Amino acid sequence: MPTALSDLCRYPIVQAPMAGGASCPQLVGAVCEAGGLGFLAGGYKTAGGMYQEIKQVRGLTAQPFGVNLFMPQGGQAADPAAVEMYRHQLAGEATWYDTELGDADTGRDDAFDAKLAILLDDPVPVVSFTFGCPARDTLDAFGRAGTFTIVTVTSAEEARTAQRAGADAVCVQGAEAGGHQGTHRDDPDVDLSAGTGLLALVTQVRETVQLPIIASGGLMRGAQIAAVLAAGADAAQLGTAFLVCPESAAHPLHKQALTNPLFCRTELTRAFSGRPARGLVNRFVREHGPYAPAAYPEVHHLTAPLRKAAATAGDAQGMALWAGQGHRLARELPAGQLIEVLAAELDTAYSALAHRSAS
Question: Among 21, 35, 204, 234, which is 20 to 30 Å from 88 by CA?
Fold first, then answer.
């Protein structure tokens, strides 16, 4: 098992865990075989489903890989009145797609304890956490099992929390990142556009904690990886860049939308899940984003049948098209080739910097 971040992969390139299907075993295996660190997404899966994917990855590569878990959404549940109001807001969508809305009370813990039990009983090299920080006894248990632990953070204070709890590293997520912001607490009063950009955030965290840093948010080119490494990161995590790879299990419409001129920008929205997540702006985001409550995972469960029905109907305007700000830079390359291209671009950026310093 790895003892440091540098033991995990040949290149400082991490494939982000993208919940919802994109981070399938084939993608993870290809990334790891090419010298990156691939991640399975444990979120939104049953514990058994997660374990089956782990076994598939082990059949594809002997290299280290990771599994990401969503922290349970403890504390007080979302305001039932706000969720019910949003249900009424979405009634027309259910009629349009000829489906029922989901049960908002399906559950708030994402089978976290069952997944922990599997990962401690049959350890994987790396486990990361999103939407919060585990207690010290949980991280200590993974340490005894030989598992390297990473906590997603979106502020210097969250990084301090991760360091105090005993995490081995932090994944620093800038506002540019696609998909859900991994904030430890979703404050409904915070302006969704007020997030901190990645370079500034990496510098803040680097000056706050002593942990290794994986930088995440809008990264699509090797030169950008060089920039975050220069800012103090130890590795870079990319998600949107891998979405269009043939090994990715993202829906074909999602892959096409990333470079479709029809989808010209992204924004953070609670429309699909009740938590801030960055995606391409489509009809659903425009019509429902302003009214979506801070109610995760209730809104996620509520909209699940709508998203499935939209995908089945081939309607990208009703799908959650998660994407980082760099989505227009996506390259449709096999995952292994993308790793090689990024590594070559990183070397070129280093050479250019060295040349400038010498001249």
Answer: 21
CA distance 168 to 162: 9
Element containing residue 356 per DSSP (H, E)? helix 335-358
Average pLDDT score, the chain? 96
pLDDT digits (tens, 9 = 90+) for 188-214: 888 888 899 999 999 999 999 999 999
Residue 356, CA atoms < 13 Å, CB-side half-sphere: 6
Task: Indicate the pairing of strand 213-216 with strand 179-180.
Answer: unpaired
Q: Which CA distances in Å does 321 have to 169, 249, 268, 317, 340? A: 29, 13, 11, 9, 27
Question: Rounded to whole angstroms, what are the CA distances from 136 to 58, 149, 225, 297?
Answer: 28, 11, 31, 25
Amino acid at 14: V
Kindly provide the b/e burial profile for residues 271-287, where b requires at least 16 CB atoms within 10 angstroms of the residue's own CB. Answer: bbbbbbbbbbbbebbeb
260-309 pLDDT, tens per residue? 999 999 999 999 999 999 999 999 999 999 999 999 999 999 999 999 99
144 token code pair: 């005894």
SS (H, E, C) 53-93: HHHHHHHHCCCCCEEEEECCCCCCCCCHHHHHHHHHHCHHH
Mode of pairing for the β-strands spanning 39-41 and 13-15: unpaired
pTM for the complete prediction? 0.96
**Rounded average pLDDT over 25-31:** 98
Q: What tokens appear for 100 in the block?
A: 């029922």
